[in-house]
Design a protein that fits this description.
about 250 residues; mainly alpha; 7 helices; about 0% strand
């Protein structure tokens, strides 16, 4: 591979050297020929200085026209590149703003998973055995959804405005508060299912076991509440950022 690139570079250098040599020869001839014509070639009716003056005027005019044309081309090229860079930057900014809206959609989908009425019961008196099956089914549904959240969130990496990206990594990072709490919830849920299995085997539950299960569900729901607050805070921050942009 190195030999291949070395060969290409060598050929490029050779071509560059040939072009440079030709340019130097042409410049040399452009200066030498008028001098030879002036001092060595006899022109009938002419005198020293006529041919050289003509060639100097011609060459000066050619240099002036070429120089002005070259400057015009360089300026036009610079403006085109500058406009193109501006268009690209504006497109990137617009694209990043669009990513914020898409991220807010994801946040709303996640929040929806924590908004089930049975997840809002944070007092033991509000829980009863009739709600256990519903709680379990909605917990399993949330587990399925949450297992894909990491992949969905990952597509927003490095695509968000700087004002949002830091909070994004803080929210979805492996050691973030939300992820840590959700892992605790899953651990608590596994413990809860073991207690529910005891009830299923015995086909009845003592008042003590009912109280213990209700307490476990309430503790899980308290953690659900914390996650709702975290998500709400992040979504509110994104919305304030967008509102600020609209005002500006």
């Amino acid at each position: 591979m190195n030999k291949f690139f070395s060969g290409i570079i060598s050929k490029f250098k050779k071509k560059t050297n040939v072009k440079l040599s030709v340019l130097i020869i042409l410049i040399f001839l452009a200066i030498l020929i008028p001098l030879v014509v002036e001092y060595e070639v006899l022109i009938p009716g002419g005198k020293h200085g006529d041919w050289l003056n003509f060639w100097a005027q011609y060459l000066g005019t050619w240099i002036a026209l070429t120089g002005s044309s070259l400057i015009a081309v360089l300026v036009a090229t610079w403006e085109i590149r500058a406009n193109r860079n501006t268009e690209i930057r504006m497109f990137q900014i617009k694209e990043r703003f669009q990513q914020v809206f898409l991220l807010l959609d994801l946040i709303q989908d996640i929040m929806f998973q924590f908004e089930y009425p049975v997840f809002r019961k944070t007092k033991i008196k509000d829980m009863n055995p009739e709600l256990w099956d519903l709680f379990v089914s909605q917990m399993e549904e949330k587990q399925t959804f949450f297992s894909e959240v990491g992949l969905k969130a990952n597509r927003f990496k490095y695509k968000l405005p700087r004002e949002i990206s830091d909070d994004f990594f803080e929210l979805f990072g492996e050691k973030s508060q939300m992820i840590t709490i959700e892992k605790e919830i899953q651990k608590d849920f596994e413990s809860l299912k073991k207690e529910l299995n005891k009830v299923a085997k015995n086909q009845c539950a003592s008042s003590e076991l009912v109280m213990r299960i209700n307490s476990q569900i309430v503790e899980i729901n308290k953690k659900h509440k914390k996650i709702r607050e975290i998500l709400h805070g992040f979504g509110e921050g994104c919305q304030k950022y967008l509102d600020k942009l609209e005002k500006n």
